[in-house]
Design brief:
heterodimer; A: about 400 residues; mainly alpha; three-stranded antiparallel β-sheet; 17 helices; 8 strands; globular; B: alpha/beta; two-stranded parallel sheet; 3 helices; about 20% helix; about 25% strand
Chain lengths: ~400, ~140
């Protein structure tokens, strides 16, 4: 491009002045350093306030165009020091705090903690309490998966499942409310058993819910399973091979969707899970679509467990004989349960006093989130949203 | 199982390769300020093959460094970062050892027993949040 063509759009006088004054040439697009559409990497900051991060998660994305080259998670925005609080509370006083970690599955958190302390005492909840615990935890698992499905589908662009899921979850929350007065942070169990007896009509409410839920789970599937957009957005996205899952410590539905048939309820049965007949759904490809199918199947298996537990609900006491002031013997214990999101473990060290010496929570969301980088490398930005959704993280539990 | 800190890495590697403990459930620490070796570092391992869980524990002094287990189990990455964040225990050979839950410039390690529950890094709060106290 010569000088006269470059300034052809200007009037002769202006062109002359510009050239004379050495003004920057506006149309010089030939040289590379002046263009802004080059092919260098872009660093994009996603969150912490982003609707698809399900809380306050910040992901730093390194992009080449729309392709993700790498990610880094910045977490800790919800850190409340739960483990430090535990050291300054008695065993009983710390119990309500655990509900605030994974707040969409508070019942499971409470179950894990109560069982860990019971293990420290080498005691067990009575049979009736165990059945009530199983019923409530499985209801909680369904509720947690419903929140997951609703928000995950919303992230990908399907609005209806959110309304369906929250409508049906309401029935579970009503049962919780009738049972213990709270809907979300329930504090339903106590160390040694349950504090509340099942209310009149508890069994009937659970049965009604189970009968109503199965057709509704089919409705979810009608909306999504064969939906072309849904399949297009989830199939082959965020694949995790079984060996990667194990190396990264990923547990829960994410592990099972990769084809590893492992569930703590079967592998190391706690409570009375041995007495119930249920299956562990697994996937084949380990992609987002398989994880969706596994979770839907898991909800149906939970219904199966609830039905068996309600039918076989034994009579008897609901709380074991434990002292009013809890002073466990000196020692340490690790106990883990299958929470809706994966292995939830409690490592408790007792020095023989009324307060735990150390409580360590092994949160499933924290460890699962670590797999994000592996899953999204080479995918598109839009898939990051799908993968965060499919990991089913709760930031209250990641940060504690 | 309690092992000496010098051979800890070797033991962990053997556990992974010879004993098939392929899943590292958790890495954490406990602080006993009155002891000569004030820190317990606890590795909780699980074997899918034998459906068995084991705890490997090693005792270290303040300031002693351990070899990172990231090369054995990639899970150890964030778990070791959390131990560093909360206790100030450093791991050699960790790819990116920095704070994970607390902000980068924070002073102190909260899960040590000499860190009272109400303590906070007042300077950090003043500079970054512009308020006197976060409580």
């Amino acid at each position: 491009m010569n000088d006269s063509t470059r300034t052809a759009y200007l009037s002769p006088q202006t062109a002359q002045t510009r050239r004379g004054a050495g003004a920057p040439d506006l149309l010089d697009l030939d040289t590379k350093d002046q263009t802004f559409l080059d092919a260098t990497e872009l660093v994009l900051n996603m969150g912490p306030q982003h609707p698809s991060t399900h809380g306050v998660l910040r992901v730093i994305l390194k992009l080449d165009g729309e392709k993700v080259l790498g990610t880094e998670c910045v977490i800790g925005y919800l850190h409340r020091g739960v483990e430090k609080i535990a050291e300054n509370r008695t065993y009983t006083m710390f119990n309500p705090y655990v509900d605030r970690m994974d707040y969409v599955a508070a019942v499971s958190n409470g179950l894990g903690y109560c069982e860990a302390v019971e293990k420290l005492f080498a005691t067990e909840a009575p049979q009736r309490a165990q059945y009530i615990r199983v019923i409530l935890t499985e209801l909680c698992r369904i509720a947690s998966h419903q929140v997951w499905l609703g928000t995950h589908a919303l992230d990908i662009g399907a609005l209806t499942p959110l309304f369906y899921c929250f409508r049906d979850r309401e029935e579970i929350l009503k049962i919780f409310e009738k049972y213990c007065g709270a809907r979300l942070t329930t504090h339903a169990f106590r160390i040694g058993g349950c504090i509340y007896e099942a209310y009149d009509g508890f069994e009937q409410d659970c049965k009604n819910f189970c009968d109503a839920f199965l057709p509704k789970s089919d409705e979810y599937e009608e909306l999504l399973t064969t939906n072309r957009i849904w399949v297009g957005r989830t199939k082959g996205i965020g694949i995790l091979k079984p060996e990667d899952c194990i190396a990264l410590g990923v547990t829960g539905p994410v592990l099972r969707a990769s084809g590893v048939k492992w569930d703590l309820r079967k592998a190391q049965p706690y409570e009375s899970y041995k007495a119930f007949d249920f299956e562990i759904p697994t996937g084949v490809n380990g992609d987002t679509y398989d994880r969706y199918l596994v979770r839907i199947q898991e909800m149906r298996q939970s219904v199966r467990i609830i039905r068996q537990a309600v039918d076989g609900l034994p009579s008897g006491p609901i709380v074991a004989k434990i002292p009013k002031v809890l002073k466990p013997p000196v020692g340490e214990v690790y106990h883990s349960i299958e929470a809706p999101k994966g292995e939830l473990g409690y490592f408790i060290v007792s020095d023989g006093s009324t307060q735990p010496y150390r409580v360590r929570v092994r949160p499933p969301s924290f460890v699962n989130l670590q797999a994000l980088d592996k899953m999204v490398r080479g995918m598109l930005v839009a898939d990051v949203v799908a993968v965060i959704g499919t990991l089913d993280i709760v930031l209250g539990e990641v940060d504690r | 199982m309690v092992v000496d800190s010098a051979i800890c890495y070797e033991v962990l590697r053997r556990m992974r390769e010879d004993e098939q403990f392929d899943y590292c459930v958790d890495i954490t620490a406990v602080h006993y300020p009155k002891r000569e070796q004030p820190f317990d570092v606890v590795y909780i391992l699980y074997s899918f093959h034998d459906n068995e869980r084991v705890r490997v524990k090693t005792l270290i002094t303040d300031g002693e460094r351990l070899r990172s287990a990231v090369s054995i189990w990639p899970t150890a990455n964030w778990l070791e970062r959390e131990v560093f964040d909360m206790f100030g225990i450093e791991f050699d050979g960790h790819p990116d050892l920095k704070r994970i839950l607390l902000p980068d410039g924070w002073k102190g390690h909260p899960l040590r027993k000499d860190y009272p529950i109400l303590q906070q890094d007042k300077d950090w709060v003043q500079i970054n949040l512009g308020i006197e106290s976060g409580q």
